[in-house]
Write a structure and sequence with these properties.
Helix 1 packs across helix 4. It contains eight helices and eleven strands. It folds into two domains: about 130 residues, no CATH class; about 100 residues, no CATH class. The protein starts with 14 loop residues before the first strand and ends with a helix. The chain is globular and about 65 Å long.
């Protein structure tokens, strides 16, 4: 399975275009390989027809467990799967004439494409891409990815510790979403005013305590004389003892990105 291509991005299993900090009013589409591992292994002859049908009848979790067990037993199969993913990404890029600057991100079995009409989703009869989600905005804050669809009131994030999104969807991530929405509707002067007010309220502890839970560690942080204390919760009346530096950095990066 070989094809000529000037781009080398298909070789990346985890790529992010770091030159793109903030994208607005655009089409950002996530294309995923459908049942990637199973279909690649079948295409390469590591799974016969009977096993292929058996795997297709399983739910996603059971199928992934079964394939994982197969990969543990066969090192050649692992190497072939890696090459299969590369080939699939390469063909998707080549068949749709996608340029490097039109690729925002790659996640092994997914490619995020910017402002590009993609019509060729089938790599082979078995290896196929599907259009999974579409966004109109992207912003990178503290090396975390935020994909936003303002029309559908939706935000997806990548790079956060478990539990951070669930907590901060009502706090810092909500702030981010709300200010992005304002930026699509208001002039810069109004955005500057909103950001200035929010930052002031934050550093003067004039926001609910949930805003002060560290967005990286998902803990409330208290600086002691010789140590740092991390706790899961704190009373509203005690929030002023918290270290707020990490979330302040988040706010400042939002300000820099928008202004």
């Amino acid at each position: 399975m070989n094809v000529n291509s000037t781009s080398q991005l298909y070789k990346k299993t985890n790529y992010l275009n770091k030159n793109m900090k903030y994208i607005k009013s655009s089409s950002i589409v996530e294309y995923d390989m459908k049942s990637a591992g199973m279909n690649i292994l079948y295409e390469l002859g590591y799974i016969n027809e009977e096993k292929f049908k058996q795997l297709k009848s399983m739910n996603k979790y059971k199928r992934n467990v079964e394939i994982g067990l197969m990969l543990r037993k066969n090192r050649d199969m692992n190497e072939a799967l890696i090459k299969g993913f590369e080939y699939a990404r390469q063909m998707f890029i080549v068949n749709n004439n996608i340029q490097d600057h039109e690729i925002l991100s790659i996640k092994k079995d997914a490619i995020y494409v910017i402002n590009k009409l993609v019509t060729n989703l089938d790599v082979t009869d078995n290896i196929k891409f599907v259009k999974k989600k579409e966004y109109d905005t992207y912003i990178n804050i503290m090396n975390r990815e935020h994909y936003i669809n303002l029309q559908q009131n939706d935000i997806d994030v990548k790079g956060y510790r478990e539990g951070v999104f669930e907590h901060h969807i009502n706090y810092m991530i909500k702030f981010l979403y709300d200010i992005i929405k304002m930026d699509s509707q208001m002039d810069k002067e109004s955005i500057v005013e909103e950001l200035t007010i929010f930052k002031h309220r934050y550093i003067t502890f004039d926001l609910p305590r949930g805003y002060y839970k560290d967005i990286i560690n998902n803990k409330y942080i208290i600086d002691m004389e010789f140590d740092t204390l991390t706790i899961d919760n704190i009373g509203e009346s005690n929030k002023e003892i918290l270290n707020y530096n990490v979330n302040l950095k988040f706010i400042l990066e939002v300000i820099n990105a928008l202004l």
